[in-house]
Design brief:
heterodimer; A: about 750 residues; Aldehyde Oxidoreductase, domain 4; 18 helices; B: alpha+beta; Ubiquitin-like (UB roll); DNA polymerase, domain 1; five-stranded mixed sheet; 5 strands; about 15% strand
Chain lengths: ~750, ~160
């Protein structure tokens, strides 16, 4: 076994842990577990009184093992996506066990070793896994203290810890955790009330902690799945038409099988791949096969062009199921001013910098798949169904990939690699998609539209609020073979399942369509569109991007109509104290009250949302400068304030919010997938440009609110919606022009401003 | 066909199709992880290395064209145990999220610092324009490059670099 493999797949695997009687997870029905974590049903709840993912996996030894020498191994079903969760979870475990972070080895999602916590998605990891590990660690520390107390014959509450992995008696005697652990079994269920450490005693949680994954990423270390090299590994490329819905007619297999270095061609139904001893050979063979003409399957019409009207026309042509999200009525005064507006977002690519990759190996009837999917356990389900293998014969292991920001090609490429590996038993198969395959075949973030109508009374209170949103499902995450391309290409094909909405409170297209503000007479409806013109699935923040953009744009439209300050109209309608606090914190740090007034060129905007109305609170304020000749908008400075409960790693929080802000500026100001009449037409970074260094803000500052001991609230998706609206509001403040159709591009702004 | 290339100061004789992009030779033959496949089109910079001191897209460069030329990769700047100046600065600023673009960013920035020891912010932004980051780590990458400049000058404490 190569050093790389052992590093990635066996890191920290310490057999024979002293505390472990057996490493058993509760048996559960196979189908019940699928697809949790995006906001839909997750792994089955077996212990409802416990917190976080302990509800579904209550056994302490599923989460924490302590070896006789004191080494601590912590297990999580969540995975590192570049969001820093590995470091944050190590901090949580270290704090609650009261040991140094360096003493903790963390094992991330692996179907043979860790709890199934559903997807790593929806900003759930801190709530689900952080909370589970925190409470599991508190249980373990409590059990260790009780055992030591018995040994010393002192009351358990007089046994203390000092942050060094030793238990202390009042008289100064000490025992190492490992010694005590050797006498205990942790194959017991957690109790709900194990005391947590006091925030005033924290040594690790809430302190800046350099991320453990960064050094290798800066120095060419083996940091990614892409960097794994297994003995005897072959390189594969999958061969498809240019984009979803196309299929190659008659690829020239005869020539390719004779190419030197080509090991084999795998063709099963509509699935086609080449396997070679070298990557470049596989790529050349793939290119040759792709010269074939292709057919296009019929599908609902794609948008005729990139305009908001075309997005709206495309969506409104689809049959809708109407879902009432919110419906309140109370007495309110008559409307003095009414504003009505439509907002749209086009289809957006995840745009991972590294195209998706997987390694699969089929040996002795067992398939092992290394995957950077957000749903490691779902990869097992998909591959088992696709290949007709019992689930226990599929071992899926997470290894890091490039940032995915939702469901990109990761799940598809894992299934592709498994199909190829099954056909070439004994040899590890490394498959990486090409750039144009990632753009052409990954599920996109869905195009969406909203229509809002809101009215202000004479006292500047909002007396009615109507919000309608049209969207495809955002959660088409695969939980079976029909959810991946290779399944659709099998003979006979596994049909793609019908898309379903995620119910509130989390929602999908409806996410954040229910305002957190207190408006009178609020009516929110979700026009759910199950038929998908383009292949779509989860993109970071799901519908919150457009819904928050719409709500927060409308608030500024109302404020402008009535001559009210944008911060004042928000505070006037917000009762949630934490929401008020983040708005005020962002405004204070920004200098909102002393901001430069819109002068045709410069202007300021702000926006707020609490993600899903149950996650992190985030407010964003920014100042823009518009070049009226070209329509180019530069963000001179941006300030975000975020309340995520107790932050695990404040710098990690800032990193995520800065990233969300910059990424949302890119989505909102310049991104849209282009379509030909019947297929996608964005294949590279010139046909799908994203933000580059010339256009990033002059400065970005993030204020992290101090909430000692408050429950964790994930932050990865908190900033996207507020950033989008703050940009539109700042542009409106600067120019007097309100842009409602994303992208808020220079061309559109220039056209809206008119002749200079 | 045999091609000899010089990478990070060491010569390697390889039996390889000379049309093979340098990227695949670095990754698969020399087992160097730094340069990444991002687009294969020279549009994203994830594969950036230096050829004779100049930044180049290794995904577009046939290995046959670089025989006898000096190739430097991020592994040539330092290691996790003994990081180079830019690597130290990126670590200090925690200038990575997924990090897939970062080795290319560092090599791109190194080329600037090799040419202009004390670049201003506009020069840094203009120079880094070729490289894409999707996580939105740009602000930290810019800070890290400025920090590396300051570290080299040795005239400012680390804290003073932060804007």
């Amino acid at each position: 076994m190569s050093p790389v493999l052992s590093n990635l797949s066996r890191r920290g695997f310490l057999a024979g842990g002293a505390l472990v009687v057996s490493f058993a997870l509760a048996p559960r029905a196979f189908a019940q577990l699928a697809g949790g974590g995006e906001g839909g049903a997750g792994p089955a709840v077996v212990a409802p009184d416990l917190k976080g993912s302990l509800k579904s996996t209550p056994w302490l030894d599923a989460w924490i093992r302590i070896d006789a020498d004191g080494r601590v191994t912590v297990f999580t079903g969540k995975v590192e996506l570049g969001q820093g969760i590995r470091t944050a979870l190590i901090q949580v475990a270290a704090e609650e066990l009261d040991i140094p972070p360096a003493a903790v080895t963390l094992v991330t999602a692996d179907t043979d070793r860790t709890p199934d916590e559903g997807l790593t998605a929806g900003s759930h990891s801190m709530q689900d896994s952080g909370t589970a590990i925190q409470n599991a660690a508190a249980n373990v520390r409590m059990l260790l203290a009780a055992e030591a107390a018995r040994d010393w014959d002192v009351p358990a509450d007089q046994v203390t810890t000092g942050g060094d992995g030793r238990l202390r008696a009042p008289d100064g005697r000490t025992l190492a955790y490992g010694e005590v652990a050797a006498r205990l079994s942790l194959h017991v269920q957690a109790v709900p009330d194990a005391p947590l450490r006091k925030p005033s005693d924290y040594r690790t949680l809430g302190r800046e902690q350099p991320r453990v994954d960064i050094p290798a990423k800066l120095t060419g270390g083996a940091a990614y799945l892409h960097d794994m090299r297994l003995p005897g590994m072959l390189h594969a490329r999958v061969v498809r038409g240019p984009s979803v819905g196309t299929s190659l007619q008659s690829p020239d297999l005869d020539t390719v099988v004779r190419m030197p270095g080509v090991v084999t061609v795998v063709r099963q139904g509509g699935f086609l791949a080449v396997v070679a001893d070298r990557q470049w050979t596989a790529i050349q063979a793939m290119r040759h096969l792709q010269r074939a003409a292709y057919d296009r399957a019929p599908q609902p019409p794609l948008p005729a062009d990139g305009t908001g009207d075309a997005v709206a026309a495309t969506l409104k042509a689809l049959p809708a199921r109407d879902i009432s999200i919110m419906d309140t009525s109370e007495p309110a005064g008559p409307a003095a001013r009414t504003v009505k507006a439509r907002y749209t977002r086009p289809w957006i690519s995840h745009g991972s910098i590294g195209p998706s990759c997987a390694i699969a190996r089929y040996v002795d009837g067992t398939m092992t798949v290394w995957t950077h999917s957000q749903g490691t356990f779902d990869v097992r389900r998909v591959v088992a169904e696709l290949l007709g293998l019992p689930p226990e014969k599929v071992h899926a292991i997470h290894a890091e990939g490039a940032g995915c920001y939702g469901q990109n090609g990761a799940d598809d490429v894992a299934a592709d690699a498994a199909v190829i590996a099954k056909a070439v038993p004994g040899r590890p198969i490394r498959l990486q998609w090409m750039r144009e395959q990632e753009f052409g075949w990954e599920p996109l973030g869905p195009g969406m539209m909203t229509e809002l109508e809101a009215a202000l009374g004479a006292d500047n209170r909002i007396v009615s609020w109507r919000h309608a949103v049209w969207s495809n499902p955002h959660n088409n995450r695969p939980v079976g073979a029909g959810g991946v391309l290779a399944g659709n290409e099998a003979d006979p094909p596994f049909p793609a399942p019908e898309g379903k909405p995620i119910p509130m409170p989390e929602g999908d297209g409806s996410r954040n369509s229910n305002p957190l503000y207190s408006f009178a007479n609020t009516h929110v409806v979700y026009h759910f569109l199950k038929d998908m013109p383009a292949r779509v699935s989860a993109l970071r923040s799901l519908g919150a991007h457009l819904n928050v953009f719409s709500i927060e744009s409308m608030l500024d439209e109302l404020a402008a109509a009535a001559g009210i300050d944008p911060l004042a109209i928000r505070l006037d309608h917000m009762r949630d104290e934490r929401a008020r606090d983040v708005m005020q914190a962002a405004a204070d740090r920004f200098g909102w009250s002393k901001r430069p007034k819109g002068d045709g060129r410069r202007g300021c905007g702000m926006a707020f949302a609490r993600y899903k109305n149950l996650g992190a609170y985030c407010a964003v304020a920014m100042e823009v400068e518009v070049d009226r000749e070209t329509g180019r908008t530069l963000v001179r400075r941006a300030v975000a304030a975020v309340d995520c409960g107790q932050p695990a790693n404040p710098d990690g929080v800032r990193n995520q919010i800065e990233g969300a802000l910059v990424q949302s500026l890119s989505w909102t100001s310049r991104e849209q997938v282009r379509f030909a009449p019947d297929r996608r037409a964005s294949f590279d970074w010139s046909s799908y440009p994203i933000l580059r260094f010339d256009d990033v803000p002059g400065s970005v500052e993030v204020v992290v609110m101090d909430r000692p001991g408050a429950p964790f609230l994930g932050i990865a998706e908190a900033g996207q919606g507020p950033t989008a609206a703050a940009l539109a509001n700042a542009i409106a403040d600067a120019t007097g022009v309100r842009l409602r159709d994303m992208p808020l591009s220079p061309d559109r702004l220039k056209a809206a401003i008119g002749p200079v | 066909m045999s091609v000899t290339i010089t990478v990070n100061g060491a010569d390697h004789a390889l039996d390889v199709d000379p049309s093979t992009p340098l990227l695949y030779v670095l990754r698969d033959d020399l087992e160097l992880n730094g340069a990444k496949y991002g687009c294969g089109l020279g549009q994203c910079g994830a594969c950036t290395v230096h050829i004779d001191g100049k930044p180049a897209f290794s995904c577009l460069t046939p290995v046959g064209a670089v025989a006898g030329r000096r190739i430097r990769t991020v592994e040539g700047l330092g290691s996790a145990g003994a990081p180079g100046l830019l690597q130290q600065a990126f670590e200090k600023e925690q200038a990575a999220q997924c990090g897939y673009c970062i080795a290319g960013m560092i090599m791109r920035a190194q080329a600037l610092l090799d040419r202009i020891p004390d670049p201003d912010d506009a020069q840094i932004r203009a120079h880094m324009q070729t490289n894409l980051c999707r996580c939105g780590t740009h602000m930290r990458i810019l800070r890290a490059v400025r920090r590396a400049v300051a570290l080299r000058k040795g005239t400012q404490s680390a804290q003073e670099v932060r804007p």
